[in-house]
Amino acid sequence: MSKKILYLVHHSHTDIGYTDRQEKISRYHVHYIRSALRFLEKIENGEAPQWEGYKYTCENYWQVEQFLAQAAPEEIVTFEKYVQRGFIDISLTYLNLTELVDFAILNKKFKAARDYVSRFDRTFDSAMTADINGFSWGYAEAMYQNGIRNFFSCLHTHHGMFPLFKKQTPFWWETQDGNKLLVWNGDHYQIGNDFLFIPNSDQSKQYGVAGFSEQDWEDQLKITESRVFEFFELLEEEGYEFDFCPAMISGIVTDNSPTSPRMMEGIHRWNRLHGERITVELVTLNEFFEQLRKRELSIPTYKGDWPDWWADGVGSTPSGVKLYREAQRNYRLINKLDPTGVLADQEQLQAAEDQLMMYAEHTWGFHSSVSEPWDAFVNLLDMRKSAYAINGHRLMANHLDDILEAYGEAPNQLDRESFFKVINPHDEPVHALTSVYVQHWQTVDDSYFTLLNDFVEVVDCATGAVIDSQVSHSSRGKKVSFYLDMAPKEERIVRLRRKVVQKIDTKYYNHAHIGAERIEDIAPYDGFSHDVSVYGIKTDHLKVTIEPGKGITSIVDRTTDAQLLHPNAIHAPFSGVYEVTPNDPSPYMVRSRMGRNRKAPATLREQAELTNVRQLEDGPLFAKVLLSYTLAGTKMYDVILTVYKRTPQIDATVRLQKSMEWAPENLYVSLPFTYGSPAETDCYFEKSGSVFKPGVDQLPGTNTSFYLLDSGFCLKNKNHHLFVSMKDTPLVTFGPLESSLVELCNKKSARKNKEVLYSWAMNNFWETNFKVDLSGFYELDYAVYLIQQENVEAAGVVSRARHLVEGLVAAAYNPTAAEKESFR
């Protein structure tokens, strides 16, 4: 064996809520940095020569941010002194995040780290992350745009896997914009601890009452010799081509580990004995990449997304994720309505951003969530995790309210004239449905809203034109919906007014399609078309067929006769599929044995059975039907289907009551869409700042089992596009759903791009820290948009669809006297 170098990078893995209360974790990491300062001062003063060479890398900027917020001025001076000298390093990532994170907030956090390190006269261009096994393609570009050129991935193959089919290897990761990051595809974030360089760090041993003795040190060193030499021998056997290898190390084997300078004692011992064969060096993150870039190495380049195996945690907390996603949409509206940040308090917005960032952090519960779901600490940390989504939603909603008030939103008041301001916040023209609400105590032209139909009409105040509208019942009162064509950033005032009704209510009909009980159940005949019924809905754009006992069996684009349902679909659109795996031998072990598969051969699978269909509405703008299902694992599973008559759009709201189950379970919502032939249709995912083709635009060896999306996915067949929005449930998986060997992305994975998709709405899979109890009432919103646009890339279609998902903004408004004078 030729001479080798083992580079160790000392850090503390940040898991916010896995080992203790979230706010306690913050205190710990502040203390760890203070400890590092004390150790360095002792070394500098000559009090601890045995620790010479000690260095500490802050795993993320969040740790530094917590320290700067709580440290005394003299502590900050000392900290920055050692940062400048290179004894303390800073990784420019913010936290170890799921792909739930909002891309705009992520960029802000990267920029905050970049702005802070710019004060130092040394290079900071490296970042690391630990535990999570994947990062969106957009994440790579965000790093590059914020000055990060090197990225160290500390993977964790517990229910995950590294890319490229091998670890401990570098590669260039090319972004969608053609920029390149140097990535070290590393090993577990505490593999360095396996070498036992730190005294008394073998947690499998007990020592005498005298404690860890010199003999114990000698015995431990023998284990170190065995493991280090075997490590490099294995690398050589596997064809490892470099004379060096990096490994991450913590003060002790635990997440949120205290820092320890005592690893230097073991490193010095090793180098005195074996330094001629294998030298061990403690380096910082930036130092490692400096050494790596000095070497003339042949490093391959790869392009594509790197889907995260940690992403499925969001499926265990559907209520919190629903709040997060709504806050995310409000955040985007805020940035569009107030791009310069002058209409509301920016400190409030930053507080909201911080709360959402903390919710997107990868820790999804205490470490015994599954084995001890009754434990007070388990439930405490679950509620604290939820509080990030709740507080982020509250602050974001309040900030949006402040902006709308600046736009003139009126508060509740008696006898208010029913004026509303509608705003297009987008930078493109939008034709979309918007809605305003009239509460039970509010009046329109002094009259209470006792009737549903033929009571009010919507008037465009600028032109005096009556806008077609439709009134529905809702939990917020009467919902008045209407379409508007609006230019970019346009504002328009509309008014509700009493409608003059001249229609005579009669019970006499001379047509065959209406019976005495006023039930319309006659099939179409010459001179009569029956476009809305429990058997289907037909508009100028779409034809939806519903079959008893089956559900939706066909959706046709009437402008092209293209079928929108995948020919291989097994389950009807928006119907549910439930899976449960028996607890054999225990809730913990059954999950642990699944490995990277989120199900097992023993998994039981049930599909929803349609039991009834009822027509709810049939108005000028849209029709609604209710599809009622029975589904194992639930006590209620209803789908409210809304088909729009003026636009090619379908909304589906899944309302369900989930039952409690301790065993591992999954709940899917079927989304089996295509546009015409699947062979001619490409699937694109929108995900954390990027749009890519799953199974195609991915790094080799990455996860193809599931993905965490942003607004939804696009199916593109030439100039025809179908976009499916998933407002509340970001996880998707390709069918079939049966358990099988886990396929990593390879040359054959392109076929997955053509397969049937499912929304993975819920799961309680992970055996340590996912929330096990999914029971409760839920409302999950989906939408399907047909978008015909020539010569446009999928990213452009996604951008347009986002505008439709975010919609127009409508607010109660009291016009000024001058404005009233201008009304027609």
UniProtKB/TrEMBL annotation:
Q: Which Gene3D superfamilies match?
A: Glycoside hydrolase 38, N terminal domain
Supply the Pfam families for this chain: Glyco_hydro_38N (PF01074)
Q: Which GO terms describe its molecular function?
A: alpha-mannosidase activity
Q: Which InterPro entries does the annotation name? A: Glyco_hydro/deAcase_b/a-brl, Glyco_hydro_38_N, Glyco_hydro_38_N_sf
Lineage, top-rank taxon, reads Bacteria
A GO BP entry is: mannose metabolic process
Which named protein is this?
Glycoside hydrolase family 38 N-terminal domain-containing protein
Q: Which organism is it from?
A: Paenibacillus apis
